[in-house]
Design goal:
single chain, alpha/beta, 14 helices, 9 strands, 41% helix, 21% strand
């Protein structure tokens, strides 16, 4: 049986229903649809071990925000997307006023589909030093630090080791980790954002899992924000053939032919840059609640 690779809880739920049948109840999982700022949302809440076993993901809340309207350049799409992301992130974090945060960008800046995390850090309003050193002007800001952790091949250190050391030193109230994900569907690439309160396992979507970043490993709550930028070739081939009515092929043959091959859009550079900016601005609006997107643009310029 071909295991369709996806990091998205909403897709894992769909895959389970496809295999078990639409009428079968998915025990230990709640799911519902909603809307933020005109963008569709889907929330999946894994309640217990039954849900964990069915979906292969930790207990917690997973919110999928469909930002396809951003790519279509709908009216005020960027501002609405940033505000929608901020609202969902605030609901997950529940941070008290003034509590500090560490924003971490995971991934390799030199590999375009993996550069969402570092790109989001570039758009993060860093205030921790200003709050401490110039409180008369910046005391009303939340203390925020940011880190582009890099990857083992370029730093010689696991990103988890580096992040844990920084967390131990500055002791933030929470960590917000941003990373690229893998999807089963081309239409979700660079148009969907997943937010979760369960943390993240960097590299798991492309079969290169590293140490988990979560409350257990870091000692503080970890919210993860991910954008699917790649799709596994075998998963893509299986879905395309199924849509064409060709479900009679051997799944193992597809897996062998596409093993190790990852597919990404030809305009991934522009789409990654767009998503990195909207995530960075959304994080800023979630953490600095008195600001608007225009304020953030001015402060970062």
């Amino acid at each position: 049986m071909l295991k369709r690779r996806t990091d998205l809880a909403v897709e894992a739920t769909q895959l389970w229903r496809e295999s078990a049948g639409e009428e079968t109840k998915l025990e230990g999982v709640e799911a519902w649809d909603g809307e933020r700022e005109g963008f569709p949302t889907t929330t999946v809440r894994i309640l217990d071990g039954r849900g964990v076993e069915a979906l292969g993901k930790p207990e917690g809340t997973y919110v999928t925000l469909d930002l396809a309207g951003l790519a279509r350049r709908e009216e005020d799409a960027f501002g609405r997307a940033a505000r929608a992301l901020a609202a969902e992130l605030q609901a997950l974090l529940g941070l008290p006023e003034g509590a500090s945060a560490l924003v971490v960008g995971l991934g390799n800046r030199a590999i375009t589909p993996d550069a969402v995390g570092p790109g989001a850090v570039d758009h993060t309003l860093v205030t921790r030093h200003l709050v401490e050193q110039v409180p008369e002007h910046f005391g009303h800001f939340r203390p925020v630090a940011a880190l582009a952790a890099g990857v083992l091949g370029t730093t010689g250190m696991e990103s988890g080791e580096l992040i844990a050391a920084v967390v131990e030193k500055i002791r933030p109230a929470c960590v917000i980790a941003v990373d690229a994900l893998a999807s089963r569907s081309l239409k979700r690439l660079c148009s969907t954002v997943q937010l979760t309160d369960t943390g993240i396992v960097p590299g798991s979507g492309v079969g290169n899992a590293r140490a988990a970043l979560n409350r257990e490993t870091l000692g503080v709550p970890v919210a993860a924000i991910g954008v699917p930028t790649v799709v596994d070739a075998a998963t893509l081939a299986a879905d395309v053939l199924a849509e064409a009515g060709r479900d009679d092929l051997d799944p193992e043959a597809l897996q062998g032919a596409g093993k190790g091959l990852i597919v990404t859009p030809k305009d991934i550079d522009a789409r990654t840059a767009d998503m990195a900016k909207v995530i960075g601005f959304g994080v800023n609006l979630a953490l600095q609640t008195g600001l608007t997107a225009e304020d953030v643009e001015m402060l970062l310029s």
